[in-house]
Write a structure and sequence with these properties.
Blueprint: H1 2-20, H2 31-47, H3 51-60, H4 72-92, H5 98-102, H6 108-111, H7 114-117, H8 120-135, H9 140-188, H10 195-249, H11 254-263, H12 273-284
Length: 286
């Protein structure tokens, strides 16, 4: 929603200001210039990225027009779920969650948190490390190191679409210049025409430079920054899981381990201590 609002503001202020200054909006409509800019940039985008990067970028585009799912309610559900898991382990032993870990979709514990259960990668991350914790063959330091490596891999994979879109945005001004140069070349081949027509042709050619810069810094470039923000939020959730599970492995009670996880959350989404405690009690009563 905010992406659309931002685009509307960009178009309204730039083209509105141009029109208020006496400019003719019709002169900015140059479909052939757009064809050259978009076509050239798209071709370079395909050449410069492998199939994995292209698929990852395509998959990430729809998420740009949705609000962030990483809000306080989701984090409270995550911490409440981790608390219930750790409390069950502390009370009944590690083997008590074996069925939950092997089949989380059918688990009464995981099923209480459908928003989290829908995130396949997060649930897999949690269950994999619960399984390792139950094996008894790895200490807390080894599991923490492995978690950090997996989170780093997740972060690097998530950075690919943002990097691809950033490079696409960087290329658009150059292709705008290419379109402008092509327009100037066409104009130079028409010097036998009267000055008013030549002036109009030069103006049309300069539109290419304008469009390339506008598309780069007003439309495509900001999407890269938005993807980076979404990636950081996603990574923060994995870090909260890591800190909570490692705290439990180091012998802390479930309530303290969950508090460790709460403290690393961003302040804008971090629930208060009493707020989280009340949410955990409510979740346990379901």
């Amino acid at each position: 929603m905010f992406v659309i609002i931002g685009y509307v503001v960009i178009l309204g202020t730039i083209f509105g200001g141009y029109a208020l200054g006496g400019g003719h909006l019709g002169g900015l409509w140059q479909p052939l210039e757009l064809l050259m800019i978009f076509g050239g940039a798209l071709g370079a985008f395909v050449v410069g990225n492998d199939i994995k990067a292209l698929k990852a970028t395509g998959k990430s585009l729809p998420t740009l027009f949705k609000g962030s799912k990483y809000n306080k309610a989701l984090y409270m559900d995550l911490l409440a779920m981790l608390f219930e898991i750790l409390a069950k382990i502390r009370k009944d032993g590690m083997m008590s969650i074996e069925n939950d870990v092997e089949n989380p979709e059918a688990s009464p514990l995981f099923s209480k948190y459908p928003k989290l259960l829908h995130d396949h990668h997060l649930i897999e991350f949690i269950t994999d490390y619960l399984r390792l914790m139950g094996s008894g063959n790895m200490d807390a330091f080894q599991i923490e190191t492995l978690m950090e490596s997996e989170i780093e891999t997740h972060h690097m994979e998530g950075h690919v679409p943002a990097h691809c879109i950033a490079k696409l945005g960087d290329a658009l001004p150059a292709f705008g210049i290419v379109a402008a140069v092509m327009g100037v070349v066409h104009t130079m081949g028409s010097l036998d025409k009267p000055p008013p027509e030549l002036g109009e042709m030069i103006g049309h050619a300069l539109v290419g430079t304008f469009l390339g810069i506008l598309l780069a810094y007003g439309f495509v470039g900001p999407l890269s920054g938005l993807l980076e923000q979404k990636l950081e939020e996603s990574t923060k959730m994995y870090n909260a899981v890591k800190v909570t599970l490692i705290s439990s492995l180091n012998g802390y009670a479930p309530a303290i381990a969950v508090e460790f996880g709460r403290k690393i959350l961003y302040s804008t989404e971090r629930p208060g201590f009493a707020e989280l405690e009340a949410h955990i009690k409510q979740a346990k009563g379901k």
